[in-house]
Design a protein that fits this description.
The chain is of the alpha+beta class and 372 residues long. The protein has 15 helices and 12 strands.
Amino acid sequence: MADCRGACAEVGQPLQPSCQRRPKTPPLPKGCQPLSTQVAGHIHGAGKAGFLESTDGTVLKPISSRSSGRRELKFYQEVFREDQSDPVITGLRCFLPKYRGLIPEEDTSISYMKLDDVTRRFKKPCIMDIKIGRRTCLPDASERKKETSLNKHRHLPKLGFQIIGMKIYHPSQGDYVVFDSKYGRELNEEESIHGLVQYFSTRTRFRRDLLPAFLNRLEKIEDWFDKQEKYHFVSSSLLFVYEGDTNHVATTGALNNRDNGVVLDVLENVNSHFISGANADSGHNHGKDATRQSETASENEATSENVTTQINESSDLKHLEEAIDIRMIDFPHAVPSSSPDDDYLYGLRKLITSLKSLLNLGPYYHQLLYLD
């Protein structure tokens, strides 16, 4: 089709849609392809630069030309610079994907950050991206942007966290189940627990055995936030990963029989009377089940608070933790500060509380979710 730009310009008319060139998708750097494990964020293609995966085991994240892109790059460079000596900042490194420098694009219009691919060591990674905190905009954002963000994340101010994408491998089906950001945005405070149950459910099984390792990792992140007053993290996320292929976990030694046995022994003793009761009544009136569920949750609150401690005292979680990973990601609004990040801590603690409740109630919710 002939280019009609010249003709439109000659008669002083605006370019018609058919005359406008569509944005060109940036070329892929050598040895890269669109990220196959992506659950949130911009997808590479249709005129947009998105996340890529490289054959060298890294993820390439495009750097936005906006101030947010420069801010995120500066944050990663500050945390991982070789001469960084601040113990608070160096203490953050173990919770982030490692920053490995820049990849400039050929046309110089786009550059990428190279980050470790935290899903690479998993054969069938089950992934969840959770936005943490009640805010998604910086204080100096326009009122229009704040209003748009609030409408988009209407449950976030109360809930404190929001699932923005999940990809779960179901061995019985031999395939993944995917949930996008729309699913997470619709979950209110009461319904958010169902989203977490979805993530830990492989249809035939609820992965309660992994919860102590995730909780242990989250509590370490909480400890870091309790001590730091250098940054506020707005609209940042936590990336959860666990191995969906249990045979792969066993062969790599990520979960040996001793650790798995001790963990399961402790978990089986946690609220076992509730689980058995739920199994017996699962086909009966759901209103009655809900009442029993609420009463039992109150009675066993202390148990769920202490279950991680019980497991830590009984077994070294090192091997179990190798079957999972959690990383802080997305820092376009990581800003220097001189005060605690109470907003992030609010969301993080709400998430920890919700996950602890699954130690008791997870199998029950799983049964309701996949009840035939």
